[in-house]
Amino acid sequence: MPALAYLDGGPPQPDALDWLLTSRALAYGEGAFTTARIYQHQVIFLAAHLQRLQESLAGLSIPLDVVDWRLLEDEMRALARQQGEGMLKVMLLAGTGGRGYRRDDETQWHRYLHTHDLSGTLDAYQTGVSVWRLDALESSVATPYKHLNRLPQVLYSAQLPAAYPDAIVVNDGGEIAEGIARNLFWVEGSRCMTPPLASGALAGVMRRQLLKTHETRAEGIKVEETREQEQEVPCLKTVQSSINLPITEAPLTLARLLAADEVILVNALQGLWPVRSLNDAQGCLQQWSVGPVTRMLMKCWHPQMGWPVGINEGEPS
């Protein structure tokens, strides 16, 4: 299906894009974005994506009233109805204004939404993935917010061998926050954990879904409720009771990861990927099986996202 796009409520017109060339979004990466899964003509985790955008603007000290959130929600729903299945990227862009780095109150904000078909292989779900180990960039400033400046992720991806779909980034102290494009979870016994935001992890939408189901503390800014309340996934309570699964935040070192029972990479676009091995230029550092926690979480979350729920065992690639 051809890509669909809205700019401030309608199809982009070339003669209406002059502002982009002098925009703060282009010059300084000032803005925020989120990427969502479209399945069965709906935006999956719609409320959580709106919340992420609000938190990202707040993290950049941008007043939330620069965006009409109800209108943005309508636009997201409309594009999802037209696209049917695929991905939706929503960008909030700071227009022209200010003097150098200094902002002013006159800057107009723009909404750019576009859809694409979602290409890729099912191997990640059916056999799991092998990932690469990368050293963290010395100059990388980690933030939990999804702002437009993703240069560290671009540089990490440039170092990633073509055969590997993602990497686990390790800093000089042997600490791990996340992958390049995904949050990381690991299992020790009957406990499932993820690095805290303070470690430099991104406040991912899928990460939020997993954590909020198993803990009661509030995170961030409460988003205004959507007009159609999203349904809670009913089987999560069954998962938690059947395998006694608390999901918590905990610091993660490379040594701790290598000793884990299971490793999972997650994002809101492609769901949960079982990690089968970690590799670097010296060879394979560790292999993992796809255990009961990974299997149960895939069975729980993937039906509503349109991804496979099963896994074919075999040797890690």
UniProtKB/TrEMBL annotation:
SUPFAM superfamilies: D-aminoacid aminotransferase-like PLP-dependent enzymes. InterPro entries: Aminotrans_IV (IPR001544), Aminotransferase-like (IPR036038), BCAT-like_C (IPR043132), BCAT-like_N (IPR043131), Class-IV_PLP-Dep_Aminotrnsfr (IPR050571). One of its GO terms (molecular function) is 4-amino-4-deoxychorismate lyase activity. GO terms for cellular component: cytosol. GO terms for biological process: 4-aminobenzoate biosynthetic process. Belongs to the class-IV pyridoxal-phosphate-dependent aminotransferase family. PANTHER family: AMINO-ACID AMINOTRANSFERASE, AMINODEOXYCHORISMATE LYASE. This is Aminodeoxychorismate lyase. It comes from Terasakiispira papahanaumokuakeensis.
